[in-house]
Amino acid sequence: MSNGLTPRQQARAENLARIKDLALAQLASGGAAELSLRAIARELNIVSSAIYRYYPGRDELITDLVIDAYDDLAEHLLAALETRRGPRRHWIDACLAMREWAIDQPHRFALIYGSAIPGYFAPEETIESAARVPACFFAAAPDAQAPAQSHPIGRELRRQLGVTAAAFDSDADAATVLAQVTAFAQIVGMLTLELNGHFVGGFEPADDLYAAVIEREADALGL
Question: Would you say residue 62 has pLDDT above 90?
């Protein structure tokens, strides 16, 4: 069946896919800082100038890879949330799915949640895809209720929490949104520590630790 592309468009799409595959291989072996368009051109057996017909520079390629990673992770999370279950089970499913994806593709997890890439600043076009991931966690626990605050929430933080709630179409109060953001940050932080080997010698494997943490966060969210 025709995909609606002309032969030229099809060839370009195939070359873009090959470029991104080779870039992902570079990420897996050396990290984003080592990403090189010239090295990719050599792998494709083309002159280095030809690759710039696809990407003007390294940053544009990284941006494409970042958007792809966010979107792929979001789709993985959404698939895990398709089953009809209660809010607590949905939250746990989302957390487990995120760890599954991160362990399977640590280089892509590091690309979007790891250390900043020297000289690279993510453009605004990455925001929509980036927001899809926490949106899955907000959707997984729509009835979250945070415990009473032990200290007041300041005016600026309250404003920021309101903006965040609106972005995720949530009518939760500031304390609950703060608990949701904290829980998401906890999950990302746990995975970052695990993937960087910080649990070796203490929590190895970290399955039980991770399970305990996500149960604890579910309690904190009142699920």
Answer: yes
Q: Could you check whether 1-56 and 66-220 share the same CATH topology?
A: no
142-163 CB burial, b ≥16 within 10 A, e <16: eebebeeeeeebeeeebebbee
Q: What six digits make up the tokens of 7?
A: 């032969």
Residue 187 CA to residue 181 CA, distance in Å, equals 10
Query: Mind giving me the DSSP string for 73-139?
Result: HHHHHHHHT-S---HHHHHHHHHHHHHHHHHH-HHHHHHHHSSPPTT----GGGHHHHHHHHHHHHH
- Convert the pLDDT of each residue in 144-164 to its tens digit: 877 766 678 999 999 999 999
pTM of the model: 0.91
Q: What is the DSSP track for 42-76? A: HHHTS-HHHHTTT-SSHHHHHHHHHHHHHHHHHHH
CATH (one of 2.70.98, 2.40.50, 1.10.10, 2.30.230) for 1-56: 1.10.10
